[in-house]
Each structure stands twice: as C-alpha cells, then as structure tokens.
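Human: Here is a favour to ask of a fellow structure person. Comparing notes only helps if you start from a blank page. Give me a protein, with the fold worked out from its sequence. Please set it down just below, with no commentary around it:

Assistant:
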Amino acid sequence: MVFQTIFKNSLASPDIIGTTSGCSLGAILGILFLNDVLMIELSSFIGGLLSLFLVYFLTRRSKGNEIVNLLISGIIVQAIFTSLIMAFKIVADPYQQLPSIEYWLMGGFADASWSNLLICFVLILISVFILYRLRWSIQIIGFGQEANTLGVDVKKIRNRALIFSILLVSSVVSVAGPVSWVGLLVPHMIRLWTNQPISKNYVLTLLVGAVFVLWCDNIARCLFTIELPISIVTSFFGALYLAIIFRRGKKVI
C-alpha cells in the first residue's frame, strides 16, 4: 500500500523498484558460494539493500520528475539483477544448487525457523513502527502537488517511506523468499472492503496480509503429501480474486 500511494499507481509493488530481484540475486549468490541457511538470508537482505542503493544512485544522477526517475531506475536495476539471476542459474550445479535456487525463488517457509526470524525481527519491527508514524504524511503525498501547500516535505517523507519499506521487504524476503501477489493484492482487497485512505488502513493491511499468507501456507502444506511453494497458492488465489472483481466491473486500477 505504501508503494502504491507513493507512486500513485495501483499496480505498484516491491518488484517495481527491483527490491525483490535484489533479494533473489543475493540469495542465489548465498546458495552458490555459502550454502548455509543463515548466510543465504543475510546475502538476500544485502541484495535488497544493494537494489535500494543503486536505485537512489541512478535517480540522483537523472533529471526530470523524481517519481518517474525512481520508476525507471527501478526497472533498470530489476532488469540487470534478473539477467544476473539467469546467468548464475546457468552456471549452477544442475543436480544440487539449481533445484535449491528454483525452490527458493518460489517462496516458502520450509527453511524458516524462529532463530532465523529473530535476526530480522528487529528491523521488521522498526520499519513497521516508522511507517505507521509516517502514515498521515504518506497519505498527503498521494494528493500530488497539493502536499507541498500543506506543509509536508514531500521528498523527505517519500525517501523515508521508501527506505523503510524496502528494509521491511528485504527482511521478509530474506526469510520467506519472494512470495508473489501479496504486496499487490492485499491493498486492493482492503480498498474494496473499506474505501478508506492508507492512514486508516495501515494496520488492517498488515493483519490481512499476514492472515492471507498464513492461510495460503496452510493450503500449501495440506493440499498434497508434499509441501508446495507458497507462491503457487498466492498466485492462484490472487489471480482468481482479481479476475472475479474485474468480471463484476469493480474498479481495481
């Protein structure tokens, strides 16, 4: 919801500025060269931070609209990281490393543990708290140029919101992998249910997102004798939900 408000785009998600691909590249490097669960999570988190640094580096060296520059920089970073991911998959051991890479890229909690989660818990808690404190300012940013007349430092608030959003996403992805559709779908679900701005829906979005992921994880564990990657379930129900509301003529974009 933060990404969609800042970029004024209902299709915006962490993928749009390369965060997910950065985390994925870091995890792949961890699988190839470190082969330890804790180090894979750490390298994934560092990859997410690297994407943040590169996006801001490219944006600061660009002229024109800052929002457009952020989006274009994110697309560039995502494309570079995606090409590197494909290159490393080619050189990976096809019998041991490649299956691990593919399974990680589909997301899931099979390798997650409380000890690993506690490492990222502090960053998650801090990011959630600061974004909660910024929720009113983020809502005002969504008004566009009017935000400046309301006494809000748009650039400062936008940068803070993006930095802590990316820290939050990087922390979560480093533990669970890239779980598809959650960041895109849940804000739309909340808007259709409540029709309230981000300042009033922030906590509800967090809770519904957590419940949705847990529900999909239970289905992934119980549907077959083997545990499915959670992204298979989230992608299916996410696409199904959007198809239903699109068929009914609801405004989702």
Observations:
- Residues 66-91 form the longest helix (26 residues).
- Residues 181 and 235 are 6 Å apart (CA to CA).
- The mean pLDDT is 85.
- The radius of gyration is 18 Å.
